Structure formats: C-alpha cells, structure tokens
Amino acid sequence: MDVWQRRGAQPGARPSTEPAVPAHAAATTRAAASVEVAAMPLAALADTVSACQRCELHRGRQNTVFGTGDEHARCMIIGEAPGAEEDASGEPFVGRAGKLLNAMLRAIGMSRESVYIANIIKCRPPKNRDPKAEEMVACAPYLRRQIALVQPRVIVAVGRVAAQHLARSTAPIGKMRGQRHYYDNSDGDDGTHIPMVVTYHPAYLLRSPLEKRKAWDDLRRLRALLEAQQ
User: Fold this and answer.
1) How many whole angstroms separate alpha carbon 76 and alpha carbon 143?
2) Which helix (H) or strand (E) is 116 found in, with range?
3) pLDDT for 138-185, tens place per residue?
4) Which residue among 3, 95, 195, 207 is least packed, with the fewest CB closer than 10 Å?
5) Which CATH architecture has domain 29-228?
C-alpha cells in the first residue's frame, strides 16, 4: 500500500491532527479582533489585555501592564515597554524611573494622578530589549483604543522607541526633540490629531543626568501646549 506523506515531513513523524490555518484566515481573525477592541470601554479593554496572546511575549510575563491614572486626563504619557519592576507590579513607570517621572511632573505643577500613563506594548520583552516590530503591531489596537477613550489634549512620547513609533519616524530622538509632532490615527475613523512632545526616557536620564536640562525644556513645552488649550 502506498504511504502518502506531507512534503517536508520527517520520516516516521506522526501526522498532525490540527488543521492548518491559512495566512489569510489568520489575518482576517486579527482584523476582526481589532474591530472588537475598537468598541470596548476601558475596563473591558484592560481585561482583554490581561488575557492577550497576540504575540510571544505573553509566555514570559508575570503581569500585563495596561495603564494607570486619570482616565480623562488632558495629558497622556506613553513609554515603550514594561521593565522588570513594572512586570512584577502590573503598573507602568515604577521604581527609580517612575520616581523621576513623578518629580518631572511635579516640576511643572502636575502629578502622576493627573495624567494617564501607558506603554506601546503591554508585556515585558526578555532582558528589557527593545520591542520588535511585530510586537508593537500586535499591541497597536490596544493603545489606539486607550488614546481614543482618554482623549488627551497632548501626548508625551517618552524615549526613542515610543517617539519613533507614535510619530512614524526613523529619526534619532535627539533630532525629534523640540520639533512639532502629532499623533495621527490615520488607521481609524475618528480623525485623531493630537500634539505630541518628544522627550528622553527617565531611565536614560538616570544614566545621563546632564541631559536633564534638555528634558526640562521638553517639559516647559508640554506645559505651554496645555496652557494654550485652556
């Protein structure tokens, strides 16, 4: 009797009992999930993120790190990804970097409780490496929905990865700082066009304290933008 074997299969291997999923079907499933996310309130979105398995990062996480702060804040601060302390606590920007961020906000008369803080991706990358493009794409619907629900007047992109992703730029952060940027959700239907300030990540400022003067200039720019919209 002839034995038919799938091309590329190893001799003696047991045939898979799982049906293959065509690439176009997987893409359709992801698109449908994104549409569902676009209709969620914030609490339901947080629950969905907590069970997310859109990328491989879910395998190594302790907690997802969704967001925290005023859900109707005028200012939204967006970093790149959780670190070890954020992964352990489930809250963005904790530890030394979080304390510095709190101090930076106080310097312009704001508080952590008065802003909304989130990250580009919701799970910690291994060894705190930069997020991969496919990981940012997987998390993008969550962040878009967060921004749509909070409706901030100004976004602060903290660090190179967040700044480049939100501004859709490849420029180094040193050249992005001080320039006019906007968060433009051209993938959606809400016409979102939000002024954006680019600044250094607090973790970088802890390693390079001489750059704090430049970050202070960025904070003053943020304050001016908020005051102009009162």
Assistant:
1) 11
2) strand 116-119
3) 999 999 999 999 999 999 999 999 999 999 999 999 999 999 999 987
4) 3
5) 3-Layer(aba) Sandwich (3.40)
